Amino acid sequence: MSLPRLFRTALLLALLTACNSRQNDSATTDPTAPPATTRPAAAPADSPGAWYRQYRGLLPGAADSITLQLQAWPRFTNDSESAGVTGSYAGPDGQPFDLNGDYGIRHAPDSLVLIDYNPEHLAEGAQSGPVWRLHRQGRELTGTVNGQPVRLREARPLGSLQLISKFYADSVAAFPSRAGSPHAQLRLLALQPAGLATGLLRDNLLRHLRGDTLENQPAPALDELWQQRLAAYAKDYRLDAGERQQDMAGDSLPGYALRYDEQQLMHVYWNQAPLLSIGYFSYGYTGGAHGSYGTRVVSYDTRTGRPLPYEAIFRPEAKPQLVALLDRAARRQLRLAPNAPLEGPLFVPHLPATHNVYLTSGGAVFVYSPYEIASFAQGEIRLFLPFSELRPLLQPDLPVGTAADMAGPQ
Question: Where does this protein have compositionally biased stretches of type Low complexity (predicted)?
Fold first, then answer.
């Protein structure tokens, strides 16, 4: 939908509202008429083609069940910048593993292909790990993982939240009055908790989607947030397009140079009381060899609706010990000897204790963006530290990390 159409739709809705208002103002009240009944509010619903589900079952050759967080959303025609599906799964130890959609496959609504790129699951020299080929059949997922049959069943773990998926997408013309103008794409995938007891959590999710770091501003309405983001993006894109055209000194700017793309997608990494852990994924392409991306992660205490930032998780004196633990975890992931230097495979001699961290029932995951500690080709680097290693470093009032949560790998 183009911007002019958006504005026409908004104007039409405003006119209809005004007409209804005038009709209501001129209506007379019949004192003998029965009292009007209020129609119950419609139950929250996913946007068409967007959804989030949880599944449980056994992976081939495994003795313990896993919980899979699975999401899907629509893709544009000929879309090469969004896979339209993502997932994350974990076993009893609480260590999550991400699954990425295949950008080269346009999956049917009920057929999904995901690829495991986790270093722990890559064969020596391989670029990718096991492939998940799944088909939705009612409340079940059937298919294969690494060529072996698998069957997972939809389930909602005790204390997990129902999350509604809302998807927005639009395109913006660089030169609206010019035929054949190049366009930029903008899309937003948001998650909203259902239920009356999630007000503060819902507000904080919206604040963090907007980019707020504090709770002192009113939470935006999701539709308004999208309209604001679309208007700001259209303005910036057209300014940039105009400047780039001027820099060509009379030559025509090739259309592909302005095929920008921007995405903000909320991903679920953990959803079981007392935690909800969300990734705010951002991607932007403004020309060049590739786009830039990163994920800002936040955990929430579902009992209060409040976020759990680094300072709420770790004691102030924890940093030196965290660095040592992260160094050890990085060597394990990179399959290095215990005393091998990290600088070389990475950009840094020691892993910084990043504040970009989220929690599961079994530990903490530290997330590093591309170029932060390694090359772009290495992607986001995620390091899991189990509570069995972290317990002395945790804040005493943290809702997880007790002795019952310390069954992580040694």
Answer: 27-46
